[in-house]
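Q: Could you fold this chain for me?
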Amino acid sequence: DPGMVTEVDGKDYLSSSSFEYWSASGLAGVWAEENTRESIYTALRRKETFATSGPRIKVRFFGQFGAAAPIDDYKTMVEQGYANGVPMGGTLKAGKGAPSFTVWASKGPRAVDGNLDRIQIIKSWVGADGEPQDQVYDVVWSGSRKADAKGKVPAVGNTVNVKNATFTNTIGSAELKATWTDKSFDAAQGAVYYVRVIQIPTPRWSTYDAVRAGLPLQDGVASTVQERAWSSPIWYT
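A: Sure. Below is the predicted structure, expressed as structure tokens.
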């Protein structure tokens, strides 16, 4: 597709040298009622899916019109999400006021999985000039950091010891959750919303390999990476 966007953070992820910047292959997740072929394929058809860059991060994402209730516990959040709106992969029809979204994520259970840095919601739409537009919102984050005047949250920090290919979970959070309302919502403008969950920095796979093999790190290759997860979008029409 000649119109396909292949550049992120100034790096072309379709180029032959992309391994120098990006992480290894990832995982796909499906929210199905039960672990059966029929249930999983039904969930795939309704697009209630997410992906990660490798870790076992879990993420839930619901949208509705009107204010979303505060998140008290996971079970209630999920019940209210289905009862009052749509999950990831769903479509919001026109409603009263602005849409609100509920986001939740938890870190992977393994020792090699890092804590979570933040959850972002990315809103995309097509401008009046016909060009795609997007806006990234930091919705919830770990620690006591404060967002600046533009809503941007500072970096979480870095505990990676590159020499030993180790890190500590002394920063970040094991779980993050929040509700967020799109205050810039325009009922006449179609839009797409999806969630991005970002981990704290951990050693990149190439750093683990170099340390295990007793080899120096490669020049020009990042020694750390912030693994992440992405939800299927919620559409507004």
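A (continued): The chain is about 10% helix and 35% strand.
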